[in-house]
């Protein structure tokens, strides 16, 4: 069955088609959930919530644009929804912003370590970092998604990069240390 046919069957609440869509995209969507979650269990919850929303809203998908892009956006918004009701963002004066770059040598820094330190970032920093650095949203788009100012988005990105840079430097200095 083609993707278009699966989508049409899902619009009719066909459980078998929903299961096939789940199997097709679960690993990609789970990796998105991991980026925006504090831990593995929260990522699992976000994935489940995202699929519930996808199947509730699938009739709104009009076969325009990428289906994968459509479900990824729903997944990101589902994960962000956890933080919208909780005040996790500080209002920042834009003059306080100092951009920091993070150099990652993939040969010396383990990807599992990177994922862990990103997940350990405070919510406000992790969300902005992921949206900007990993999912290519602009500060303007991030500000709208998270109902913050663009200055707050820029500041939170800079602070996230600073924390990550410090942890990566500590890791490089002592890669066998598990206490980071």
The parts where pLDDT drops under 50 for at least 5 residues are: 88-97
For the terminal residues, how far apart are their CA atoms? 48 Å
The radius of gyration computed from the alpha-carbon positions, rounded to a whole number of angstroms, is: 18 Å
Q: What CATH architecture of the largest domain would you give? A: Orthogonal Bundle
Query: In the residues, how many domains can be counted?
Result: 2
Number of helices: 8
CATH superfamily label of the largest domain? RNA polymerase sigma factor, region 2, helix turn helix motif
* Global morphology: globular
Counting helices, strands and paired strands, the structural category is mainly alpha
The level 1 CATH classification of the largest domain is: Mainly Alpha
Helix content: 55-70%
Please summarize the sheet with the most strands.
none
Characterise this structure.
With 180 residues, the chain is mainly alpha-helical. Helix content is 67%, strand content 0%. It contains 8 helices and no strands. Helix 2 crosses helix 4. The termini are far apart.
């Amino acid at each position: 069955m083609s993707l278009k046919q699966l989508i049409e069957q899902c619009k009719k609440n066909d459980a078998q088609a929903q299961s096939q869509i789940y199997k097709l995209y679960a690993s990609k969507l789970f990796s998105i959930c991991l980026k925006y979650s504090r831990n593995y269990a929260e990522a699992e919850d976000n994935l489940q919530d995202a699929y519930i929303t996808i199947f509730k809203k699938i009739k709104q998908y009009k076969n325009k644009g990428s289906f994968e892009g459509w479900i990824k956006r729903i997944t990101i918004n589902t994960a962000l929804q956890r933080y919208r009701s909780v005040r996790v963002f500080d209002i920042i004066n834009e003059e306080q912003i100092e951009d920091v770059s993070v150099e990652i040598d993939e040969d010396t820094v383990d990807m599992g370590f990177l994922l862990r330190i990103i997940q350990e970032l405070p919510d406000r920093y992790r969300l902005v970092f992921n949206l900007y650095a990993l999912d290519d949203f602009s500060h303007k788009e991030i500000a709208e998604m998270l109902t913050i100012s663009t200055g707050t988005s820029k500041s939170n990105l800079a602070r996230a990069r600073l924390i990550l840079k410090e942890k990566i430097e500590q890791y490089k200095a002592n890669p066998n240390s598990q206490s980071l």
